[in-house]
Amino acid sequence: MNALVRAATLTNFLEVARDLGLNPQPLLREVGLSRALLADPEQRIPAQSAVRLLELAAQATGHSQFGLRMAESRQLSDFGVVSLLISHQRTLREALMVTMQYRHLLNDTLAMQLEDAGSLVIVREEVVATAPSRQATELALGVLFRMCAAVMGGRWAPQSVNFSHEAPADLSLHKRVFACRLEFGSEFNGIVCRAADLDAPNPAADPAMARYAQRFVESLPPVNGPSVVLDVRKAIYLMLPSGRASTEYVAQALGLSVRTLQRQLDEAGTSFTDMLGEVRAELAQRYVANPRYSLVRVSELLGYSTPSSFTRWFTTQFGQAPQAWRKAHGGSA
Fold this sequence. Notes:
By secondary structure, the chain is α+β, with helices and mostly antiparallel strands. Helices cover 52% and strands 10% of the residues. It folds into two domains: 4-198, Alpha-Beta Complex (H-NOX domain); 228-328, Homeodomain-like (Arc Repressor Mutant, subunit A, Orthogonal Bundle), CATH 1.10.10. The strands form two sheets. A five-stranded mixed beta sheet has the order 3-4-7-5-6, with helices on both faces. Strands 1-2 form a two-stranded antiparallel ribbon. Pfam families: Arabinose_bd, HTH_18.
């Protein structure tokens, strides 16, 4: 899986590093990037290199909110050509749908989903990397929050911003960036807002400009071939906690028949079962490490009908029962 992101994902990385007294050159060299690559916002760089760079920078500076600090100054224009299309959508819901439709032009690792829950909507966003990344997650959520604020202006008032990781010791930056309730140790990463806000008219929308921008975006040459493996991986990430990570649901979400999905995965040298197992193993570590989740709840989030089935699978996968693994990794059994 060779996921790519625009170099614009790391816009202001050098600036933030400098402000925190960090010489970025050794870290760039370690992840195989350079200042020249970052200078062109449309340049495509390996997603894993970008994710690892953020984590290394946070460790080197001792600043656990490095990614969020980058997000604090992001503008809608940082989305590149897609920004014009986003800004002229009739509602925030349509702007988010456009972001989801064209996220391959922005960041191959982003998985997004709108989940209606009565009067509320959950905007789920996951960075589908090979390992959980607090920095990449907070950067992505910060950028998403600021994009929504740019579309709605002073009317943007979400109910909460949710993070699957634990809260930092100092919440001052989070409170400044998000200015709403913060939920840490949550079952998902994303933003909870009122459905009415998502469907309120955007006074700045210009349908003619939106049509022009869409024609322009669709005329762009493909920057990366479609990857059914990556698309399936992202769909499983979003659907597994809600119990819908089946071949049927994922195929439907991708607009494919089950037979076509299975054939394309077979041609890519993998299977749905293998991919489900890989994502389940990654999410298992996230959930078990979080002491706020009972192990019964973890088994439900991972799609197991009984805790005993989950315990057997986890022990086979990680060589320890989940209780012992949690205790060894700093949680309470």
